[in-house]
Design a protein that fits this description.
About 35% of the residues are buried. By secondary structure, this protein is of the alpha/beta class. It has two domains: about 290 residues, 3-Layer(aba) Sandwich (Rossmann fold), CATH 3.40.50.970; about 30 residues, no CATH class. Helices cover about 35% and strands about 15% of the residues.
Length: about 350
Amino acid sequence: MLTNISNVLRASASRNGAAVVISARTYADFTTQATFEIKKCDVHKLDETPATQVVMTREEGLQYYRTMQTMRRMELKADQLYKQKIIRGFCHLYDGQEACAVGIEASINRNDHLITAYRAHGYTYTRGGTVKEIMAELTGRRGGIAKGKGGSMHMYCKNFYGGNGIVGAQGQIFETYNMAALWKLPVIFICENNRYGMGTSVERAAASTDYFKRGEFIPGLRVDGMDVLCVREATRFAADHCRSGKGPILMELQTYRYHGHSMSDPGISYRTREEIQEVRSKSDPISLLKDRMLSNNMASVEELKDIDVEVRKEIEDAAQFATTDPEPPLEELCNHIFHNNPPVEVRGTNPWSKLKSVS
C-alpha cells in the first residue's frame, strides 16, 4: 500500500507529566495505472496507426516527470551560467521539447543507436550521461562528458553519436532516405519540428510543412511532440515497424522550444512573448503529465513537489561541480583524436604530446 503519512506530535503538560498525542494523516492509495486517450497521429503510407488509448503506470509517470524536470532545470541553470559568462561559445537549449527525448527513450532500448544534432543536452541525459557530466562539459571542465573539450554541441555516450555542430551533418537526408528504403534498413528518422529554423518560422521557409511526408516512399507519422505518451506510443509503433523488417519510417514530432535558437538569440524578434506564453500555459509537456497524474490519483502534489526539490538540489550540486572542477590542461587538448596511437608525425606536424602550457 502506497501512502503519504504526516505525523503531528503535540505535547500537553499535566500534573502527572507530559501526554503525547500522535495523529496520522494518510492519503488514499494511489492508482497504480490508468488508461489515457491521446491525440491520433496523422499518417503517410500506413494502413495502421499508433494506439490512441494507452496505459501508463504510476512508476512510469513518476520516472517521466523526474526526467523531464531534470532536463528542464538543467537547461534553465545552463541559461543562468551562460548569462554569467561561465558557459561560453555556442549553447543550444532543449527546454520545451523534453517530451520528445523522454517519449523516444521510453520505447527504444539502450543498445539501440541514436544520432542527433546540436540540441543534444536532453538526449545526453536520457542516454546515460549524468547532470554533473553535462554541466561540466558546458563549462569546459575536466569532469565533463567529453572531458571538457566538446562543449554544448559535442556530447557522447555509449550508442549515442550526437550532438553534431553542423546542420544536416547527420546525413544527406534524401540520399539516406533512398538507401534506407532500398535496403529496408531498420531506421527511425525523426524531425523534431519546433516550428522555427533559427529565426524563421516553418511557414515562411517551406512550401510544404508536412515533414512526415517528405520521405515520399517511406511511411510517416505526425505526432504531438508535447505529449510524452503520444511520443512514446508513436515510437513504439515505429520501432515495431522497423524491427519486423518493414524498413525505415519517418516521424515528425510537433514540439516547441522556449529559448531562442541558441543563447545568442533572444527568441522574440521573430515571435512574440505572448506566443511563447500561450504554449507554456496550454501545451507544456511537464504540466500536461503532472495534471494527468494528479487528476487520476497517481501522485500527490506533495510527492511531486518533493521530486522538484530533489531535482533542484541535484542541479545546484552539479553546477557547483561545474564551476569548481579544473579545466583540462593544454597538453591534453589534442588527445582522443585517434582511436589508436597516431603516427609520430601526421602530415608533417610535431607529435601532440609536446604541447605544453606556458600560462
